[in-house]
Design brief:
The complex is a heterotrimer.
Chain A: H1 21-44, H2 53-78, H3 86-100, H4 105-126, H5 131-150, H6 161-168, E1 170-171, E2 175-176, H7 177-195, H8 197-214, H9 219-244, H10 257-266, H11 278-297, H12 302-320
Antiparallel strand pairs in A: 1-2
Helix pairs in contact in A: 1-11, 2-7, 2-9, 2-10, 2-11, 3-4, 3-5, 3-9, 4-5, 4-9, 6-9, 7-8, 8-9, 10-11
Chain B: E1 7-16, E2 19-29, E3 33-39, H1 45-52, E4 60-65, E5 68-70, H2 75-80, E6 83-86, H3 98-103, E7 109-110, E8 113-114, H4 116-129, H5 146-159, E9 164-168, H6 176-191, E10 195-199, H7 203-209, E11 212-217, E12 220-226, H8 232-240, E13 259-268, E14 272-280, E15 284-288, H9 295-302, E16 310-315, E17 318-319, H10 325-329, E18 335-338, H11 342-346, H12 353-358, E19 366-367, E20 370-371, H13 373-386, H14 403-415, E21 421-425, H15 433-448, E22 452-456, H16 460-466, E23 469-474, E24 477-483, H17 489-496
Parallel strand pairs in B: 3-10, 3-11, 6-9, 9-10, 15-22, 15-23, 18-21, 21-22
Antiparallel strand pairs in B: 1-2, 1-4, 4-5, 7-8, 11-12, 13-14, 13-16, 16-17, 19-20, 23-24
Helix pairs in contact in B: 4-5
Chain C: H1 21-30, H2 32-51, H3 58-83, H4 91-105, H5 110-138, H6 142-160, H7 170-176, H8 180-187, H9 190-193, H10 206-223, H11 226-236, H12 238-243, H13 248-274, H14 281-297, H15 309-328, H16 336-350
Helix pairs in contact in C: 2-15, 3-10, 3-11, 3-13, 3-14, 3-15, 4-5, 4-6, 4-13, 4-14, 5-6, 5-13, 7-8, 7-13, 11-13, 14-15, 15-16
The chains are: A mainly alpha, B alpha/beta, C mainly alpha.
């Protein structure tokens, strides 16, 4: 009577094994999007921008912000929790970074994210408030703080040059620096999840915290660190996004939470925790970014985008994200 | 075969993946009789029950009820046919009230809506039938102790008006008084012509209750015989398919060692009321007594799981009081706890065998924050060999192993930490005889190698066969320590019930 | 027989609460979360009324009721999936979509209006039913399934109302957002609302009456049906519910459909209240998130199995009353979001402090 026992091995890292269905499907779908988009542009405009490396790099540069948010969020989701405070953590980090300015701008931005993450972690791990509701409350508080701080207007402060460099510059005029930052974050998360005791503990807690605790894992500390990482990632994304648009603005993080959750889940991570690979999240982010850009090439109105977006998530999950039937 | 079977299975087979859980089974049970089903774990007993109760469907074969062929696509269909199962793992909804739990599948209705008052009346009647008038139908199941919940489960089954009642280890969680009530109820139901299937590992229960016995082994129905036709030893022989010899390793004779762990006046809430106990290297100290007398709490307290523990614990002469399992496993003397429930506490079922084996010793297997893959592989291989765990690939999920092998993984994962003090909480519960023997032998080997063991078991035979000493607990204290020849069933039971003959002092040291 | 189990010597004396007084204690314990929320609301609202410069007037009450209604319904909607240990992230989108439909259809002659209202209600239920199908037959986690469908519903809403606008029947709009007297006067009932017997009730705001009707006609029967109890049973233990032979799929479909129905009713009212439809994505998101907050404050466990939609209504009242108090006390509008957030955090953290005192640390991991 194993209720809903998961029968697949949690495979991690970049190994290709038999349980990579989600990653392969998502990657296949990415190709499909590229083909469909190219077909569309060939037909209507007679060119194929989607296949130009320059265009793709441009898209990935924009996708880096989402990718960094998703990387942090994935850690929290693997723990079996969720971080709904991402939007205003991101915005607060951006606003404070631009407000402080100078060499301290970036450390302050990431530090704000880290601090918010720690608060989330304390509430979820030690007070055992469901993360769904605690992070929601923290998001409201951060929004309140920022509204009070800025007076509800767009902050007048500007991003520092370093922030702008990280977000928009290109090495040799080709490789976007933002992409490298995303890559660095990715490597960090992959190493963390596959090579460290902390990573192993994260999977263990997401599967069964009770057994992890009795194995001598300090589960509260691991949850705290997980949320701190998610907060720091959101902070970093905020700093970069402020650099990209040269300033911070109200609600700048609102567009990142749901796509990030979708990217993580499309990549095969179990929303209830304990199972999933970072490679999947990476492909999930690329899928969402490309889907967005194809839709904008098609000049799809917002309504159509929303519908396509929803249909894609449901369709992907119907293919491989189905849970087990309850048989008692 | 009974003359006119009430419910019969004909040539039934069931496969899970490539494994045959049941093979060409013919089985029948009659009205007005209690029919015991015996077998090791994995013998196919639970699959048999699940098929009869509609939880799983057979791949082949047919079932007849009163001579007419039947098929049950789900438990509800089996219930409608009068086949009701009391599962070992409870099928109660903890947040719902007792009344809801008992009547929910076919509640009394008025104008299409559930009639609360009638629901309550019906629950009270049913609770009275199992002798539990004291349970308030409006209490929440989650607020009841485990033994009361099991009684609710039984009342719920009766409420379905069963014609065939299946009990799977239904008494394992009950208090003695409740077991008594259940026995009386079963005899009463038998007299009313019900057919009762009874699955249990406790030989005494089967002797007390059953009219007929069927033995299963490796998914096959081996033999069915009337009560008294076979001796105890013959039955065990049928179950394991070979003669049992030397079930327990011999105990070495030697003076009592210096205490490694010394517990003095340990108290917690109202569950531990001043436990004093010592144990040394090389010793296996049993914890006896009836279930729920504080044995589990004692182990949890030592392992740092409980808050607000009073009293003193010294390890190797130095005071030690772990505040978490993490502290307990890395103290001056490393502790390990083999927990009560391997599925929710011992293992992470969906993770791989290798991950589970290294779960408790990650600290030793890593350099800084990084796991050392070479050392981990070696440790996993060593553990698999040491415990002779039968596996395909260490990367397979641990849930693919049999119960006995899973328990071996739990033990191996803790041995990898090199523990000095090993706390065992009923480690052989629900495990087949063969693996049990291996575990007994391993315990003795570890003791010989210098480990100190506290061993709680609900099985008296185990305590008698394995332990150098047995401390019997009653109401959160140790009422008696037995040693050497004094460890026998009579003494264990007498102390467990806290009946002490007047000539002997209560604390016989 | 040597079996200890048969010995009558150890009769455990079970401790049970006495009937009568004990019964009440049990009920109070079972509804502690709900009663706490109710007390909080009463205190907050009395405080608000006492400090209101104009004192207690029917007008203020009606205004408050109008502001609460949509959130109360959407909180009720959220309660049903939460009782099954799921979440419905599409309630805000369903509300918005139905609001947009209403802004097209609820106008014209009485027949047209009736048809329009029926369409709106059906549309809400249909959205919920689709959610249920994706969850039950697609076997996708509710939180993700509804995240996806909410995008689809928002898309449909945007097609219906690319920009805010539309129109609803003005009399109807006025009637359902005022008190009983005005309602009667608008439709020429009970001597235009001046009938003597009506006077004791004339001050009651119509939204409160509608809310009570919805609770009595829909929610209460639902909880007392087998399907409704099965929803609780699934949240408590799905495998136990299956073993008990309860209709699991039917209950899940019904739960999501009911959630859609409640959300749709909320959207219909919102359209009547604002006389327009507006496919506002942030507003839909805010309603969804506030619905979760209201559910938790109202004493429903996110782990499922316990709670009630009535509690969630109280939760919604608490959330709104906090904002009312801000208005009275002239809290700078800029500080209001901050205080709202802090109150929410404080409310949900209070229960957490008992975790720090748990005697058996394993009880933390449910």
């Amino acid at each position: 009577m194993t209720s809903g026992a998961i029968t697949t091995v949690p495979q991690r890292g970049f190994r290709l094994g038999p349980d990579d269905k989600p990653v392969l499907f998502a990657a296949g779908f990415v190709l499909l999007i590229l083909l469909a988009g190219t077909g569309y542009t060939l037909f209507t405009q007679g060119n194929a921008p989607l296949l130009q490396p320059q265009y793709l790099l441009q898209q990935l540069q924009v996708g880096a912000f989402l990718g960094i948010v998703a990387a942090g969020l994935m850690v929290v989701i693997l723990l079996g929790h969720i971080d709904l405070s991402v939007p205003w953590t991101l915005a607060a980090a951006a606003m404070m970074a631009t407000a402080v300015g100078g060499p301290w701008a970036i450390p302050v931005g990431i530090g704000i994210g880290l601090a918010v993450g720690l608060v989330n972690g304390l509430g979820v791990a030690y007070l055992r408030v469901p993360s769904m509701i605690f992070t929601l409350g923290v998001n409201a508080v951060m929004r309140g703080l920022m509204v009070a701080h800025t007076g509800g207007f767009a902050p007048q402060t500007a991003a520092t040059e370093l922030m702008q460099y990280l977000a928009v510059a290109r090495i040799g005029g080709v490789i976007p620096v933002a992409l490298l930052v995303w890559a660095a974050v990715s490597v960090f998360v992959v190493v963390l999840l596959t090579r460290t005791t902390l990573g192993r503990s994260i999977y263990a807690i997401g599967n069964r915290e009770r057994a992890a605790y009795l194995s001598g894992i300090n589960t509260n500390a691991v949850i705290l660190i997980g949320f701190a990482l998610s907060g720091a990632a959101a902070g970093l994304a905020g700093v970069l996004l402020a650099g990209y648009s040269t300033k911070a603005y109200q609600g700048m993080g609102d567009a990142y939470l749901l796509p990030a959750i979708a990217a993580v889940v499309i990549g095969g991570t179990n929303i209830l925790g304990g199972r999933g690979r970072y490679l999947g999240t990476l492909v999930g982010v690329i899928l969402i970014v490309l889907l967005n850009s194809v839709l904008s090439i098609m000049q799809m109105p917002e309504a159509g985008r929303q519908i396509i977006y929803g249909v894609v998530i449901v369709a992907m999950l119907l293919v491989y994200g189905r849970g087990n039937r309850v048989t008692g | 075969m009974p003359a006119n079977p009430f419910f019969a299975l004909d040539n039934v087979s069931k496969r899970y993946g490539g494994v045959h859980a049941l093979r060409d089974v013919d089985f029948a049970c009659a009205r007005g009789s209690i029919h015991a089903v015996l077998g090791e774990n994995g013998a196919g007993k639970s699959t048999l029950m699940k098929i009869m109760a509609g939880v799983v469907q057979p791949d082949e074969g047919r079932m007849t009820l009163d001579g007419a062929p039947v098929a049950f696509p789900n438990p509800a269909a089996a219930n409608r046919a009068g086949i009701v199962c009391i599962f070992q793992e409870l099928s109660l909804m903890p947040e719902l009230t007792v009344a809801d739990n008992i009547t929910l599948s076919s509640p009394p209705r008025r104008l299409g809506l559930i009639d609360g008052r009638a629901q309550r009346r019906r629950s009270e009647e049913l609770l009275a039938r199992v002798g539990c008038e004291d349970i308030n139908p409006w209490s929440r199941v989650a607020d009841l102790p485990l033994s009361r919940r099991q009684m609710v489960e039984i009342a719920k089954a009766l409420g379905r008006d069963p014609k065939l009642l299946i009990l799977d280890e239904a008494t394992s969680a009950l208090t003695a008084a409740d077991v008594d009530r259940v026995y009386r109820m079963l005899f009463d139901l038998k007299a009313r012509g019900l057919s009762i299937l009874y699955i249990s590992h406790r030989m005494q229960e089967i002797e007390a209750l059953a009219d007929r016995c069927s033995v299963f082994r490796n998914g096959r129905h081996i033999e069915t015989f009337d009560k008294g036709a076979r001796t105890h030893d013959e039955i065990i022989g049928l179950m394991i398919g070979r003669e049992i010899e030397g079930q327990f390793p011999p105990k070495p004779l030697r003076p009592r060692p210096q205490p490694l762990i010394a517990i003095k006046d340990l108290a917690w809430e109202n569950r531990l009321n001043g436990v004093t106990l010592e144990a040394g290297r090389g010793e296996i100290v049993g914890l006896g007594g009836l279930d729920g007398q504080g044995q589990k709490e004692l182990l949890l307290a030592l392992f740092g799981v409980l808050r607000g523990v009073r009293g003193a614990v010294t390890l190797g002469g130095k005071p030690a009081s772990a505040t978490s399992p993490r502290a307990a496993k890395s103290g001056q003397a490393a502790m390990a706890l083999i927990p009560e429930d391997r599925k929710s506490e011992g293992l992470i079922l969906s993770m791989s065998i290798a991950d589970n084996l290294s779960m408790a010793s990650l600290g030793r297997l890593s350099r800084g924050p990084f796991i050392d893959p070479g050392r981990t592989r070696a440790a996993v291989a060593r553990a698999i060999e040491q415990l002779r765990i039968k596996i395909g690939d260490p990367a397979d999920p641990v849930s693919t192993l049999s119960g006995g092998n899973q328990q071996k993984v739990v033990i191996a994962k803790w041995l990898a930490t090199g523990p000095d003090v090993i706390l065992l909480n009923d480690p052989t519960r629900g495990i087949d005889v063969g693996t049990k023997q291996e575990i007994y032998r391993l315990m003795r080997e570890l003791a010989e190698a210098g480990a100190c063991m506290l061993f709680y078991s609900t099985d008296y035979e185990e305590l008698i066969g394995c332990c150098d000493r047995v401390a019997v607990m009653y109401d959160g204290r140790i009422v008696r320590e037995l040693e050497g020849e004094a460890i026998n069933e009579r003494n264990l039971i007498a102390s467990a019930l806290n009946i002490v003959e007047k000539r002997e002092p209560a604390h016989a040291h | 027989m040597s079996d200890a189990a048969l010995s009558p010597l150890v009769v455990e004396a079970p401790r049970t609460p006495k009937r009568g007084a004990g019964e009440w204690m049990l009920r109070i314990r079972h509804h502690a979360g709900f009663l706490g929320a109710l007390a909080l609301f009463v205190v907050l609202y009395l405080f608000y009324q006492a400090s209101h410069p104009r004192g207690f007037t029917g007008q203020v009450l009606t205004q408050n009721a109008n502001e609460v209604f949509a959130l109360a319904l959407i909180a009720m909607a959220q309660t049903v999936p939460v009782l099954m240990a799921g979440l419905d992230l599409s309630v805000g989108a369903v509300m918005t979509l139905v609001g947009c439909i209403a802004s097209h259809l609820v106008n014209g002659g009485p027949g047209q209006i009736a048809l329009g209202i029926a369409t709106c209600i059906a549309a809400g239920a249909a959205c919920g039913f689709v959610n249920g199908c994706v969850v039950v037959y697609g076997r996708i986690q509710p939180i993700i399934a509804t995240l996806a469908t909410s995008a689809i519903y928002m898309g449909l809403a945007l097609i219906l109302r690319p920009t805010p606008g539309g129109k609803v029947h003005e009399d109807l709009s006025w009637a359902v957002t005022s008190d009983v007297r005005e309602f009667s006067a608008t439709f020429g009932l009970f001597d235009d609302g001046e009938a003597a017997w009506l006077q004791p009730f004339a001050w009651i705001p119509v939204p409160l009456i509608l809310l009570a009707i919805i609770i009595i006609v829909v929610w209460v029967p639902f909880t007392r049906s087998v399907t409704g109890r099965t929803v609780y049973a699934i949240g408590s233990s799905e495998s136990a519910a299956y073993m008990s032979g309860l209709p699991i799929n039917r209950a899940k479909l019904a739960a999501f459909t009911l959630a859609g129905l409640f959300a749709g009713l909320g959207g219909l009212f919102l359209a009547l209240q604002t006389s327009s439809g507006n496919a506002d994505i942030p507003q839909a998101g805010a309603y969804t998130l506030n619905s979760i907050a209201a559910v938790v404050i109202g004493g429903t466990s996110l782990l499922g199995g316990t709670g009630s939609a009535i509690g969630s209504v109280i939760g919604a009242l608490v959330l709104r009353t906090i904002s009312f108090n801000f208005r009275i006390f002239d809290v700078a509008p800029l500080m209001q979001p901050l205080f709202e957030g802090i109150v929410l955090l404080a409310a949900v953290s209070l229960g957490g402090f008992k975790m720090l005192r748990l005697k058996n640390k394993l009880e933390v991991f449910r």
